[in-house]
Specification:
36% helix, binds ligand RRO, alpha/beta, globular, TIM Barrel, 10 helices, eight-stranded parallel barrel
Length: 305
C-alpha cells in the first residue's frame, strides 16, 4: 500500500482522505468547519445557501425515526452576501477543501449564487437540486431532467469551479436524472439526498414536524443510497460521492465497491464527531488487508461480472 493510499483526486478536488462532511450538519460557521476538519474530514460541505436569507420552518424541525432521523429544516440560511464573508474567512483558516452547497428557485438564481460563492473562494460548488420538502427548489428541480439540465448548464457558465450535483432518491429512475446532469456538464454527482418521509404522534394524532413532511437520513436509508450509487456507476463514468447512512468504515467500503470514490457523512456526525477518524482508519486497514494501493483500486469492484 502506498503511503498516501487514502488521498484521492476527484473532479478537480484533492482530498487527504475520501471522507467529506455532508451538507446540512454543522454547516454555517468557520468554527464548525474547522472542528470538522480537525476531527479528520477530508473536505467540508456547507449547509445550502441561496440568494436571500431564509429563516426555515417552525419547530419541531427534526424527529427521531427508527435507525435515522427525519428533518424539515426548510433551508435556513443567511443568504449568499453575508455567507460570502464566512467563505472568505474560512478559506484563510481551513486546510481542507470547502465545498459550498447552493440552492435557488430558477437557473438564474443558482448561477448567481454559484458565481458569488466561487468569487468568495469556494473550492467547489454542490448544487442542491434534491431537498425533498421546500417548494419551487430542490427536488422540484432535480426530479425534472429538463429543469435540472437548465440549472446545471447555467451554473457551468457562471463558475469554473468543480460542479457537483446532489441527486434526489425520490424519483422513479435516478439514472435518468444522472444522465441529464452529466450531459449538462456536471463534474461529479453526490448520491443521495434524504428520502421523503413523515412521523405521526399517536397521542396528539398529528404529524410531528412543523412542516408535516421531511427527509429521512441515517442508517435506514443506506441500502437505498447504495443501490442508487450502484445503478449510476453501472451506466456512467462520472465520479460519484456516496451519501446516505454511512457511520463506519464498512459502510464506506460498501459505497466504494458500489462505485463511489468519496463518501459524505452527515447524520453519524451528529452522534460522534470522531467518526471521520474511525472511518478513515478502518478504510486504511481494509486497503492493506486487500493489498489495494489506494481507494481508486476498489472503486466499483462490486460491478465485476
Ligand atoms: O434544509 C432542509 O430542510 C433540508 C435540505 Br436543504 C436538504 O437538502 N435535505 C434535507 O433533508 N433537508
Amino acid at each position: 500500500m502506498e503511503s498516501n493510499a487514502l488521498s484521492i483526486s476527484c473532479a478537480g478536488l484533492t482530498l487527504n482522505n475520501p471522507t467529506m462532511l455532508a451538507s446540512g450538519i454543522m454547516g454555517y460557521s468557520t468554527e464548525s468547519f474547522q472542528r470538522i476538519a480537525n476531527s479528520g474530514a477530508g473536505a467540508v460541505v456547507t449547509k445550502s445557501v441561496g440568494i436571500q436569507p431564509r429563516v426555515g420552518y417552525v419547530n419541531p424541525t427534526v424527529v427521531q425515526a427508527e435507525s435515522g432521523i427525519i428533518n424539515a429544516m426548510g433551508l435556513p440560511n443567511p443568504g449568499i452576501t453575508i455567507f460570502s464573508e464566512e467563505i472568505k474567512f474560512s478559506k484563510m483558516i481551513l486546510r481542507v477543501p470547502l465545498v459550498v452547497s447552493i440552492f435557488g428557485y430558477s437557473a438564474e438564481d443558482y448561477a448567481e449564487v454559484a458565481k458569488k460563492a466561487s468569487e468568495a473562494g469556494a473550492d467547489a460548488i454542490e448544487l442542491n437540486v434534491s431537498c425533498p420538502h421546500v417548494k419551487q427548489t430542490g427536488a422540484e428541480i432535480g426530479q425534472s431532467p429538463k429543469l435540472l439540465s437548465e440549472v446545471v448548464q447555467q451554473v457551468k457558465i457562471a463558475t469554473n469551479k468543480p460542479l457537483i450535483v446532489k441527486l434526489s432518491p425520490n424519483v422513479t429512475d435516478i439514472t435518468i436524472l444522472a444522465q441529464a446532469a452529466i450531459e449538462a456538464g456536471a463534474d461529479a454527482l453526490t448520491v443521495i439526498n434524504t428520502l421523503k418521509a413523515i412521523a405521526i404522534d399517536v397521542e396528539t394524532q398529528t404529524p410531528i414536524l412543523g412542516n408535516i413532511k421531511g427527509g429521512l437520513s441515517g442508517a435506514a436509508i443506506k441500502p437505498v443510497a447504495l443501490r442508487c450509487v450502484y445503478d449510476i456507476a453501472d451506466q456512467f463514468k462520472i465520479p460519484i460521492i456516496g451519501c446516505g447512512g454511512i457511520k463506519n468504515w464498512r459502510d464506506a467500503v460498501e459505497f466504494f465497491l458500489a462505485g463511489a470514490s468519496i463518501v459524505q457523512i452527515g447524520t453519524a456526525v451528529a452522534d460522534n464527531i470522531e467518526v471521520f477518524q474511525s472511518i478513515t482508519k478502518g478504510i486504511e486497514n481494509y486497503l492493506r488487508k486487500k493489498n489495494a494501493r489506494s481507494v481508486k483500486d476498489i472503486v466499483g469492484l462490486a460491478h465485476r461480472k
